[in-house]
Write a sequence for this structure.
């Protein structure tokens, strides 16, 4: 007799703007420490709720940006499969998450990556993703075009690739040959990215131009002025038809953001509601303490789609050209990454081999 699963604690759909978000279900209850580790890596994300069994989440989240992460820790979902969860999501009149995550036995068995089984709402193929990658993706799910990011995860980290186990190959051998989960690189960073709630309410950041540059360090006004002058007017002879990028970059110089983390700023970015057709570079550039102390004032670039979490430093002379070319769709973000960061992208093993002296 098949096991009957309870209804998921999903709120009813409402008539307002769509609420983006994720659903995380614990489907393996053999190791409480592993489950706590998953939650720790995800962090205290805005909009996170953990309804008690038999209770629903609120219909409209109490957040500046409407979004929710519903966490289900209910033994009634022990051993649940994606098909069972999809069937439960088909209930009429309920909110549908953008991304569903299952913490299963493979999550428990891998203390290094804690890979989660994932799929898009009621659609899409299953893939594997680390909790940190899922958390960073959650912070920007409210922005347009994120379905493309999720489709990229399906391609780079499929849970069920097209190939089958070879003759004599065990299930364990086959699993060891699976592509790394999306976000594997993030787990190797020191410190790894993790969202921490700000100590004070922070204003939202609306993308009002091609690019968005936010100052988070206020110790050196002269360094900030020098940085802006370089960003707006790159060095003489710089090969670009645009002489002044000031009209293409929205600069935020507000002490309220002092000390804000990249994850906090990611979570605050909104598209322009008054001009939904505005072209943007889909990233935030940060002038932090390292930028101000660096003689070259290298800024931190934080992608908001595609390779979310793959932050990198950039010379300020290149910022204007980057945001214009990305907004116009002339180039991809990978074209501006440093080689070391680019080598960590899925499918870039050949570049990593070259950088490590293993190729030519």
């Amino acid at each position: 007799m098949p096991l009957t699963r309870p209804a998921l604690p999903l709120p009813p759909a409402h008539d307002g703007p769509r609420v983006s978000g994720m659903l995380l279900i614990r489907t393996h209850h053999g190791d409480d420490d592993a489950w706590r580790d998953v939650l720790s890596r995800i962090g205290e994300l805005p909009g996170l709720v953990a309804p008690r069994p038999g209770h629903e989440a609120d219909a409209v989240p109490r957040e500046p940006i409407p979004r929710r992460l519903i966490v289900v820790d209910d033994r009634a979902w022990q051993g649940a499969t994606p098909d069972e969860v999809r069937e439960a999501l088909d209930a009429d009149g309920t909110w549908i998450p953008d991304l569903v995550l299952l913490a299963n036995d493979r999550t428990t068995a891998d203390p290094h990556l804690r890979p989660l089984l994932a799929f898009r709402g009621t659609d899409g193929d299953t893939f594997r993703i680390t909790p940190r990658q899922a958390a960073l993706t959650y912070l920007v799910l409210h922005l347009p075009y994120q379905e493309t990011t999720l489709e990229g995860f399906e391609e780079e980290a499929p849970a069920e690739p097209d190939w089958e186990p070879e003759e004599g190959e065990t299930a364990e051998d086959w699993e060891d040959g699976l592509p790394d989960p999306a976000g594997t690189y993030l787990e190797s960073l020191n410190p790894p990215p993790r969202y921490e709630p700000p100590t004070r309410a922070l204003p939202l950041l609306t993308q009002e131009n091609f690019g968005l540059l936010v100052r988070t360090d206020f110790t050196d006004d002269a360094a900030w002025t020098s940085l802006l002058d370089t960003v707006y007017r790159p060095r003489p002879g710089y090969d670009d038809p645009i002489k002044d990028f000031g009209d293409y970059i929205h600069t935020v110089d507000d002490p309220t953001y002092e000390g804000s983390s990249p994850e906090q700023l990611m979570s605050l970015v909104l598209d322009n509601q008054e001009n939904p057709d505005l072209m943007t570079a889909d990233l935030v550039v940060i002038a932090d303490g390292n930028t101000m102390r660096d003689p070259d004032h290298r800024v931190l670039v934080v992608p908001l789609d595609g390779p979310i979490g793959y932050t990198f430093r950039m010379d300020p002379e290149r910022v204007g050209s980057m945001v214009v070319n990305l907004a116009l769709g002339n180039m991809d973000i990978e074209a501006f990454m440093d080689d070391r960061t680019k080598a960590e992208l899925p499918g870039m093993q050949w570049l990593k081999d070259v950088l490590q002296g293993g190729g030519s």
Q: What stands out?
A: The longest helix spans residues 221-232.
